[in-house]
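Support reply, case 0932

Customer input (verbatim):
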Amino acid sequence: MSSLFVKSTGAVDDLSFALVALLRADGHLCNVLTHIVSDDWRAVEQAIVAMLSPRASSKKLPNVARNILELACDNRGKTGRIMGPFFFNAIVRIAGRPAGKRLEKKIRHLRRRMSLDGQMHRLAYGRRAKNSSDARSAHQFHCDAAAVLAMATSRAGP
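Our regenerated output:
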């Protein structure tokens, strides 16, 4: 398929449908995702469409999309080590190498943004200074928040 494959909404839907078919064909990934989505494979397809959407925002992703991003990008546990290469190789195989690599970059960027958003949330709503003896904690909180903001702005990209 050409690199134009993912430019239209219909193409994103087609790519999502094909990815779901490949995920269902893999025994281990099928079992894990079936458990995550309570056998609602339409939710997996919608999550992939949300991730591939040109206007995808890490703050507005459904929980299923967040779980898929973690599995595909974090390389944690047996499933993560299987899912990442499987998922990105499947995208390249379906969409073609140039478009597939662009989508992989977009998806990994979305995961980084999701992670940074989570860090900011934990810093904003995490432990705060309760009294003057916690002044060091309050200072550290503000330093950590500044560091995360600096990372987010320095990594701003596609």
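We compared this against your earlier run and they match. Two observations from our side: The two ends are 23 Å apart (CA to CA). Residues 1-8, 128-139 have pLDDT under 50 and may be disordered. Please reopen the case if you see a mismatch on your end.
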